[in-house]
Amino acid sequence: MSLTLYYHPLSSYCWKVLTALYESGAAFEKRFINLGDPADRAELAAAWPLAKFPVIRDHARKRDLAESSIIIEYLDRYWAGPRPMISGDWEQALQTRFWDRVFDNHIHGPMQQIVLDRLRGTNLDLTRERGTITAAYRLLEDHLASGPWVTGAQFSMADCAAAPALFYAAVIEPIPGELGRVGAYLERLVTRPSFARVIEEAKPHFSLFPFAAQIPARFRPS
Q1: Paired strand residues for 9
Q2: Phi and psi (nearest 5°) for 4?
Q3: Which residues, 6 or more positions from 184, have their beta carbon under 8 angstroms from its beta carbon?
Q4: Rounded CA gap, 43 and 39, in Å?
Q5: CB-based contact 133:162 (threshold 8 Å)
Q6: Domain containing 55: what range?
Q7: How many other CB atoms are there within 10 angstroms of residue 120's CB atom?
Q8: pLDDT by residue (tens digit) across 40-50?
Q9: Which of 6, 54, 58, 141 holds its CA 20 to 30 A away from the CA of 70?
Q10: CATH of the domain at 100
Q11: Are 94 and 204 in a shared domain?
Q12: What is the predicted pLDDT for the residue at 1?
């Protein structure tokens, strides 16, 4: 196997890369990393000294890459599927990268702060983080008037970023009912085969998620 993904099945950024991998159809193996296990952490740190996942190892090129967006760009260059994750058109590619940053910084980031607060039991005032998520929902609602996916007709890296960010964020900070486009977009994401597979593989581990009781019943293990 030429590619190895160092990952955790509940990691939202790993979900982002897994979605891109399943879209591409590239063959790869998964290496489950338990950061609480010193040996696992050391193995991950050998590939990426900051010891954060996802990390992908390209055995053929003897290269390790970290950071979800960079990994997807790399896959698009060397392990491209039938549809590119980043358009060859400069303007379209710019929009893809812009929305990738919106999802990672303004939905993904605040969502993770809320999850960490629950895990640590610190009970911080996270009104600002929740407000950022809601503001990003409203920004997305206006933007989605242009097509079914973030950059229009074609599924892209931006949608790979949106899928885990919106899935987890909507559990923690529900999408307001009046934002119908955002709700419909999330439904398109969770029913897309690549991301539906990611969710299915994560189901056995959802009990470890601190907001597990709020996950919609259809996504919980049967």
Answers
A1: none
A2: -125, 130
A3: none
A4: 6
A5: no
A6: 3-78
A7: 10
A8: 999 999 999 99
A9: 141
A10: 1.20.1050.10
A11: yes
A12: 64
Alpha carbon distance 218, 221 (integer Å): 8
Among 53, 44, 52, smallest CA distance to 16 is for: 53
Section 197-217 average pLDDT: 97
CATH number of 71's domain: 3.40.30.10
Q: Which two tokens stand for residue 90?
A: 């400069």
Confidence of residue 222 (pLDDT cuts 50, 70, 90): confident
| The token pair that represents 188 in the structure block | 């398109």
User: In angstroms, rounded to a whole number, what is the distance separating the alpha carbons of residues 129 and 8?
Assistant: 24
The pLDDT tens digits of the residues spanning 117-176 come to 999 999 999 999 999 999 999 999 999 988 899 998 999 999 999 999 999 999 999 999
Give φ, ψ of 211 to 5 degrees: -110, 30
User: What tokens appear for 191 in the block?
Assistant: 């029913």
Nearest CA-CA partner of 145 in 184, 96, 175: 184
pTM for this model (two decimals): 0.97
CA distance 68 to 74: 10
Three-state DSSP string of the chain: CCEEEEECCCCHHHHHHHHHHHHHCCCCEEEECCCCCHHHHHHHHHHCCCCCCCEEEECCCCEEEECHHHHHHHHHHHCCCCCCCCCCCHHHHHHHHHHHHHHHHHHHHHHHHHHHHHHHCCCCCCHHHHHHHHHHHHHHHHHHHHCCECCECCCCHHHHHHHHHHHHHHHHCCCCCCCHHHHHHHHHHHHCHHHHHHHHHHHHHHHHCCCHHHCCHHHCCC
